[in-house]
Predict the structure.
Amino acid sequence: MTHRTPTESRSSGADCQFPPVAADNVERVRRTIISWFESAARPLPWRDPDTSAWAILVSEIMSQQTPVSRVEPRWREWMDKWPTPVDLARAPTAEVLHRWDRLGYPRRALRLQEAARVIADELDGQVPQTAVELSQLPGIGSYTAAAVASFAHGERTTVLDTNVRRVLIRLFAGRERPTPSPGRRETEWAAQFVPERDHVKWNAGIMEFGALVCTSRNPQCDDCPLNDICAWQQAGRPASAVKRTTQKWAGTDRQLRGAIMDVLKSAHAENAANEERTGHRKSTRLEETGNGLPDAVSIDLFVAPTSQIDPDLLDSLGQATSDSLSTMRNLTADSTRVSRLIADLVDDGLAERHQDSLSLPR
Ligand code: SF4
């Protein structure tokens, strides 16, 4: 028999998953969150009133699954380099991936550039204003569309990220964690909390409250201004039946894919620095043999046994590329696995194959 907490037993019926909420509680939570946000919000640069819709869109994409502390320096760098969608649309994809740096899930960078190209080529460089229009862009899901429409254009939308969902589920449904992704019923349920006025502050505030107070692992319940009406707190904080998803890294294909890409990014960066220094492209042995481009790395260097690697190939690498290659090779000696991941990266558009060498996409 499956053990369920009393709250989860009660909530097994469809109606109890997202229970009705008394109007005075809705109003109390709105007022509390908005006033808390006005005094406690972090001064994130994309919250500056002069921030463009494009800059807000970039911040939202970068912040998915990546902590704000890692996003902020990259976001500033991107905004300096590509302040408009047209700038990003025209940038070499290799440079875009290089400057995505270690934000993780680099396909987000590709999709962002695809969105920039649509905005540049079909929308006269203007970021769409409504959530419905935004959601037609490549890589823009319902959450991002609602967030950009709210924060950039002031549309009254329901912004429902993981933080918001967790706060609402704890406060009003008495459960520790939401399900992995929201369905239509949850989205409709959450919409009732969005006020007519101050809806932008509500959307930003409830997200921030989930990020800083009602956190996933250490909610600050003792200091929480909603402690007295929180259903999860009143139920004794029962553990959730929804398992916490932990993102493993060490030993995973994701780690190895990242290490392969680090080699390509290093080769790209060293080649770009060399071009800037000398004013011309350096011809490499790979290029001279017609087997590659200046920033391409021989696939042998990724997969061949150490004893069979041509020393000239190793010597042709810059120091950073050589170091990245050593790091990558130390992760695994399984050449079949590395070959499979290289093929995946090429299929995903994150790398480009040139006969027997590999580079970031042009
Ligand atoms: S009392 Fe705890 S669980 Fe409830 S809203 Fe506040 S921080 Fe979250």
